[in-house]
Amino acid sequence: MNDVLAYLDEREEEFERHITIARMLQDRVDDVEGNGQVEVRHVNTIKSGLLIHLYNIVEAITTRTLETVGRTVVAERPRRWTEAILKEWVRAEIWSGEERLGDSAFRRLTEVGGTLASGNSPTAFVVKGEPGSWNDKSIKKVAERLGCTLAIDAEISRAAYERVYRDETTALTYLSRRRNAIAHGESTFEDGAQNITLDELAALGNRVLPYLRAVAECYRDFLANKSFLAAEEAAT
Question: Average pLDDT of 41-70?
């Protein structure tokens, strides 16, 4: 998980740099001197990009975390795993996104049975996320499925789970909705973030990014402590 945390460091610094650049451009709005006049619509376009950038960090960190889980647990044989991990492995191996289980799913199920019967360690897999966009609810639900306890500092939890945004939503839910509106064409880049100030964007990042770090650190401890092993196996 150290590589995931290092990646988060890089993306967090990048986001902060882009906020700083956006502030510099905002200070030049309606400055008619020289060439290349900056208008409000230009700043609004950059703010929309920052919303998408912040959500992309959420998606990248959660995806990389689940990939790391799938790579790490296969170092141990399935008979040693907890039931929760075994279920997630079977889910990843059998379900490929189709609505019904067809012949291909039954073929994969046969392969899963063969792997379990052989006693060999399976290849790395990617833990499936929840349907839809990533937010605090889906992050918590996947952690619960895996048996990973999210023991997060009270201040970070409060900032992430407070329903202080439109329609009484949390920071991550608000972010995913605003990003989806832009990404799916419901809003243009010019108007997708026109009612959000740069200070509010920075504050949103200050709620989201520490939470992502805390979640990644919980998974780091989960893997380091081999909490994915059944109790009797972890004791040996």
Answer: 95
